[in-house]
User: Fold this.
Amino acid sequence: MPEAGLLAILPMNEIVFFLNKVVIAGFIIGSVYALGAVGVTLIFGILRFAHFPHGDMMTAGAFVALVLLWIFPGAGAAVGLPTAFVLMPIAMAVTALFAVGLDRTFYRPMRKAGVKPVVMVMTSIGVMLMMQGLLRLFAGTGTRQLYVDTDAKDIYRIPLGGRDLVITEPQLLLFATTIVAVVALHLFLTRSRMGKAMRAVSDNPDLARVSGISIDHVVRTTWLIAGALAAAGGTLLALDVTLKPDLSYNIILPIFAAAIVGGVGQPYGAIAGGLLVGFSETLAVFNWSVLLRPLRPYLPEFIEIPAKLAFVPTEYKIVVPFFILVAVLIWRPTGIFKGRVNI
Amino acid sequence: MPLLEMTNIHGGYGGANILNGVSIAIDADQIGVIVGPNGAGKSTTLKALFGLLKVGEGSVVFDGRTVTNMAPEKLVLEGLSYVPQEFNVFPTMSVEENLEMGAYVRRDGFRHLIDQVYGFFPPLKDKRRQPAGELSGGQRQMVAIGRALMTEPRLLLLDEPTAGLSPRYMGEIFDRIIAVNKAGVGILMVEQNARQALALAHRGFVLAGGQNRFTGTGAELLADPDVAKSFLGGGADHA
Amino acid sequence: MSPSLREAGLFAGLALLVAGIFAWLGAAYGVRMLAEAACYAIIALGLTIQWGYAGLFNVGLMGFVAIAAFTTVLVSFPVNDAFWQGDGPVMLGQVALTLVIGVAVTILLSRSTRIGLPKGLRTALTLVAAAITYLAVQGQLDPAATLIEREAGFVGGLGLPVWMGWVAGGLVAGLLGWAMGRITLGLRADYMAIATLGIAEIVKAFLKNADWLTRGTLTVSPLPWPVPTPQELGFVASRSAYLAVTAVMIVVLYVLLERAWHSPWGRMMRAIRDNEVSAAAMGKDINRRRLEMFIVGNFIIGLGGAALITFTTIFDPSSFAPLNHTFLIWVMVILGGAGNNLGAIFGALLVYVIWIMSEPVAVFLFTTAEQWGESLFGWEAPSDLYTRALQMRVFVIGLTITLVLRFAPKGLLPEKVVKYD
Ligand SMILES: Nc1ncnc2c1ncn2[C@@H]1O[C@H](COP(=O)(O)OP(=O)(O)OP(=O)(O)O)[C@@H](O)[C@H]1O
Ligand SMILES: [Mg+2]
Assistant:
């Protein structure tokens, strides 16, 4: 059996470690970025400004899930899934409405006044500070769990020779949600009247207007989708790790990077961009020595394998999305999928 | 009673007025053509008519109803439709989706209208799945006009539908426009190719400096030596 | 009301407010507040150049402040003999050598199309060279850093006069601004905001983690002052001297900026800001002019940042809260009146006084609410109520930004329309 022979000489232990640390971890964080970046890119495409509070909207969505968790602690046990996940659709709906409310209160008046895009961005930063202040005011700065006692955080171990491939339940749920969201979004944008109207406004707002498309409806739908996806991303991220108010802070730059890499205004690009940024992060902080060590016997003496050989130390992870962002801005400002909104 | 009657329109983009008294009237089923030098306010006239800029003075009456300064989304429902001079398609959307967007305000079925547009513009039928941004200039212009026809307008406003097209395409587009008009749609178009356009116009308007200089039937204007001397450039654009 | 009357009125009101604080909390406190506010005013002047004059959206203020403050530490902190006598300098020299060689090779390779290499190969070679340089530098730096941290703590400073440190800080901030500007100035404002936000984060991450260079979370103190310290003169006198230094800086900057603003150069800048399209049509190289603005603004921001951190006497990389403080300064500029230098100064003083006073006010409000809640409803307040109360201030910054932009976009002292004949 040549296959078994091949398996035997392969350093399975190390490869599985790589799969766990890079592929799975990258896919997970990439999915979270993707869920956020889709919202950012839609808002950018329709409203033409970078929505800075998006990370906080994700955090807010997770907090909505937390509050729901206190109100209906038994919801999960009935279905056999984590309670927060079962309640997530409600959290998504609440956050979606909240996003529409934000628009009504803060952005629409500015839009009607016809301010420059940069003033919109600044307003959005004002909103971001308000949200951060409120979140910390009500929730403190501590860390919370989105799990209740009756939930069991299932961990699946898939044996693959040496080490096990490890996937947790929230991670599986995150994959599933991301895929469902992507498919649903695709169908919406290509099949429904409103979805097509959204693409039309993103393509050419003036022509959309003279075609009789109601910009107000399109804008409202955009916020609904962006808010719902943000809540899903935030809740699932908080389920996988923990929930804290500054969840948003480390996430906004990668999300912008993902949206710009994918080409602003391009939902599919944003998803690809999210995964790209996620994988780049895990690849960059991965300790390559782990994979090199099994090669020791085959390498010449004078090459020494350092204990730690990562492109970027973990403390500097923030550099990765930034570097991607700058690289894209320099070489291809329209993004790899040719975004429409530029200059 | 004319289908459209714009009387003594004044207006601009916020600064000084661009239009200083433009008057335009055409009957149902007619083709009206606006010509004039660059910057004369031709596009601005169409925009003022379609509610895209504020009319300060004067009135617009469409089919007996005063529609001065009505919002474009409402005018679409009144039976007006507008094709801008540039950026007049949704570039990433397919030809058919472009047409669907034209029918956005309709709540009834519009399949037959799409087929009707393909009837007017046969080349579009083969390209129905292709993004409009990837079409040739002439085909894009067809998509733009087709999009505007999807609401079954009674008056179609066209801003330089043949701009930048080769003479062959220009003739084709004019033929199509006549066909659309024959089907019962009134047309008001701005044209740079003044001779050809006036030749097919029932009514012609020569604008300069935001005012009417000459008004008459297409044939009258073509025959008028003053018009020919100042605005038709001695026949250089015979095609 | 005429503009000058308005100015006089607003400044008089501010003076009254400050006088009240002096009377209430004492001169030492009042002078400290004013000195800090003066440093913020310098930073605000820098920002008003970028935003008010050129319409540039810099969200990374605190990154530039932090890098300038760090440069000051490096230049004017006393010499660390343990570092210079150890192996550290030699090892760092090797790192620098590797870096220079690597960068030179990379640059040469990136130009290699001139000797006829195909483009794809050139790009590949350049990337490989950059990666090798990076890994080699990192590989050499790690042991050097460990050694320095073990032997000497950190590299220490050069022991030069403080003013040199400030100027150097401004220059480094300007240099970083030049690099950022080259990348983002041609793009839309949103991208610039995102990129500057990223730079601020990276600068902070670097300063926080490069212990061998900055002592990281261990912080560096006491930073030398340009004037005699409180130990020598007492609080009031020493802080007043510091305040005098910063006030002179403000006056000098103000005069220079006003003159520039009323010169043909200033007119060109306004033309560019107000109508990019026609300015471009007149053949002005817009992005070059904006780059100049961005660099000059950053220099001043760095200067003010260095002065601010020097005043606090402690360099603590983790204290640079990128967003909150950045937008505190933004509020100063837009509330004061973007494009009006006097407005920036006024806004800085007013907002800083309010900001400082809001801390006791917030805490007072929350403890009162806590007591009421407890006695009326038996509500048990969370133990971290104090820190939470302070979050209220972040909320208020955000609210102020949105309100000013919406209802008073020109600020309290609007930009004066300059007329030419
Ligand atoms: N959006 C706008 N804002 C301000 N002024 C405008 C705008 N659009 C056009 N103008 C000005 O209005 C005047 C008339 O422009 P208009 O586009 O109506 O001319 P036109 O007759 O259509 O010319 P052309 O043959 O070049 O299309 C011009 O002086 C132009 O500069
Ligand atoms: Mg025109």
